[in-house]
């Protein structure tokens, strides 16, 4: 069912926002889902359900007072999945009608709100603004209790994965200048892979790392590397300073035989110039004008923790619409049941297709990850992480974004 843009009455909007703000301020942190009842009263819905996306972005599940209730709903091949992937509201059925609304913070996809209407008169005018407040409530109130994170678990989460997810920034973000998105697999047993970024005023700064080994020891090294780079970045240090600091931390805390590979750098919004350091990591892929250009070269410095020095700070002038994919070797070295590697060419092919179909950055990495898992079928033997950067320009129109 098509959705028309509603016209908002300022007085009605003010009353709606005041009501949901009052409800959000009154309920205890563990009762986030109760705010939905107030929202239903505001928009005239009979019932509402908050469906939260799991860590792997493969299912959604209803949020109850103390965690998930009911069975998970697959995102693949369902209406819920279409709403989640496309980021557009969708109404189905006729009196009663179910309106499904994507829950997002910017480009970070959180889940879906389902609203049941006995009589459908179109999207309530106040709904988009009220949804913004609802998401803010979820993110602020939800962090004080465990219901939200329990709802994100499709399967039990390992202690190492628990620590790694707490380290991550939002999985995606975008501005007029740049869009980024990352994803971790295996989502529930991740070890030493991680990524980080900051969409700052004049440039994007990013990092992807892969610590040797598995389990909690690898997570601790990964956390040390990410936080070392993050600290230097926030203090205004240079890329070389970040490499040296992480090398010092790892060698001091873990010994000279432990190391972390990675790539980290920046993209200048005005010029599109990307600078980065390659610390013994697989080279990134560049897709330009809908074609795979190749791997972006950067002479490798030794992995951090082994006492090396920076060999090269690579430079690439990005063009509007360019996509650069950073990844860990768990992606390309993943094998099918007949022991065929996933490989760079297959990864590039999927990325090109998603780019030509104008699939948004966040959905692109989700689909790429799903393709890797489908190829392997029997479960990943190593961590597999991706971080995608799309450079934009004022020359791009809204349909290209």
Features of this protein?
alpha+beta, Beta-Lactamase, Phosphatase 2c, domain 1, 6-stranded antiparallel beta sheet, globular, disordered C terminus
What's the short story on this structure?
This protein has 401 residues and is of the alpha+beta class. It has helices spanning 10-26, 34-43, 79-86, 127-141, 147-151, 159-167, 215-234, 239-254, 329-332, 343-356, 361-376, and strands at residues 47-53, 59-64, 67-74, 90-92, 97-105, 108-117, 172-174, 178-185, 193-199, 203-211, 260-268, 273-279, 285-288, 291-295, 314-317, 323-327, 384-391. Strands 3-2-1-6-5-4 form a six-stranded antiparallel beta sheet, sandwiched between helices.
- How many extended strands? 17
Measured by DSSP, the beta-strand proportion falls in 25-35%
CATH level 1 class label of the largest domain: Alpha Beta
Classify the secondary structure makeup into a structural class.
alpha+beta
Shape: globular
Query: What's the end-to-end separation, in Å?
Result: 24 Å
Give the overall pLDDT as a whole number: 88
Unreliable stretches covering 5 or more consecutive residues? 396-401
From the alpha carbons, calculate the radius of gyration and give it in angstroms.
22 Å
As laid out across the biggest beta sheet, the strand order is 3-2-1-6-5-4
What is the CATH third-level topology name of the largest domain? Answer: Phosphatase 2c, domain 1
Q: What count of structural domains? A: 2
Question: What series of H and E elements makes up the topology?
Answer: HHEEEHEEEHHHEEEEHHEEEEEEHHHE
The profile of the biggest β sheet is:
6 strands, antiparallel
Helix content range: 25-40%
- The CATH architecture of the largest domain would be 4-Layer Sandwich
Q: CATH superfamily of the largest domain, please?
A: PPM-type phosphatase domain
Tally of separate helices: 11
